[in-house]
Predict the structure.
Amino acid sequence: MIKTFLIERFSWILFFLLTQVLVVFVSFIDSSIPLKSLLYIVFLSLLLFIIFLVIRYPKEIKFYKSLVEREDNLDLTGVEESNSPFEEIVENSLTNQTSLLKKIAIQNQTYLEQEKDELLSWIHEVKTPLTAMHLMIDRMKDEKLKSNLTYEWLRIHLLLDQQLHQKRIPFIENDLYIEKIQLEDVIYSEIKTLQSWCIHKGIGFDIELEELEVFSDAKWLSYILRQLLTNAVKYSPSSDIRIISKQKNEQVILEIEDFGRGIHSKDLPRIFEKGFTSTIQHQDNASTGMGLYLAKKAAQSLHITFQVKSELDKGSTFTLTFPKRNEFVKITGM
């Protein structure tokens, strides 16, 4: 702050020094004025000026130093009280702007909450006729038409489900219930949901579960697996999808491997970015770029780590590493 202070007061310091030079110059050209005495006066003036700067420095930077060191938020409690008219102007301006921003933030938060509640309400309302539609499709006798309609119904169901969880993601910490979960039950439940789509595409599952239990949140873990399995089915030809669970370093590892179109190496670092689809298959209108993004966000809250290996035109392997039980103390304090 010393450098900043000197730069701020540079014009005043320069004015003082030029004044002293002018006094010495006048004494030099006017022989009636004793030069030595004047030099002594100039020296004392300079010494007093330096002492003045040293004394004033901590008082003048106290307010501005608190502005520099404060966190970038709307809390002004860490700002020092103003001690000069100019500091009062700055303080009043900050206070007024902060009050306005807080008011706008509260209004925006209220608006977002209302919008979220309306959208969630709409999704739940749409699910009712969607359920009725599924029951009507099940009664159909034309198997080919039934299969096609079930496939389209499933696409709508998954899109609504994605939208529902997208709105819940920001509040996921309030929605977690960590418990012992049977992996087999969760996996088979999600496979059953995708059954008609898998039959339509001729896709099967090869499941090998050495580890059957994990500590997690059943609802959000189901959602993560749903996104991974949906992607695997969507981008796979008629081939089996392998699901393996095992233990490594006292942690449960779950691998989902498909033999579909794979992911290009230059796309791998970006597949979890919001809205990112693909640079290779950019014309793919079926992809929203939200599935893996939301799955990764949910996994972070569950302390599940993601790893992806993929080779173009050969397939992809998504690996979920579950945390040790004692790590959930950070989430639930249990």
